[in-house]
Amino acid sequence: MKPEDGAYVDGLFLEGCRWNYNNMMLDESEPKVLYTKCPHILLRPSHSSKLTNYKNYKCPVYKTSPGGVCCPPQAILLTS
């Protein structure tokens, strides 16, 4: 389903963390697991001045799994 504002992104991977589906936030990675698949993300445009009240966690995000052909990491600010 197409969002009214923004775009859904799928197929990204996280390095050194994982998405905790129970708490709906980023969490420490499982032991011996470096990369995890990122859940679907809805990216919505916003002014950075409106994001000052959100906690954030900066981590590398990849377009493909690191074992395959991969583009350089893209910086995405993920809020939790």
From TrEMBL:
Taxonomically, the superkingdom here is: Eukaryota
Q: Name one GO cellular component term.
A: dynein complex
- The residue ranges of the Dynein heavy chain C-terminal domain are 2-65
Q: Name one Pfam family in it.
A: Dynein_C
Report a single Gene Ontology molecular function.
dynein light intermediate chain binding
GO biological process terms on file:
microtubule-based movement
Q: Which InterPro entries match?
A: DHC (IPR026983), Dynein_C (IPR041228), Dynein_C_barrel (IPR043160)
Q: Which PANTHER family match?
A: DYNEIN HEAVY CHAIN 1, AXONEMAL-LIKE PROTEIN (PTHR46961), DYNEIN HEAVY CHAIN LINKER DOMAIN-CONTAINING PROTEIN (PTHR46961:SF4)
Per its record, how is this protein called by name? Dynein heavy chain C-terminal domain-containing protein
UniProt organism field = Nymphaea colorata
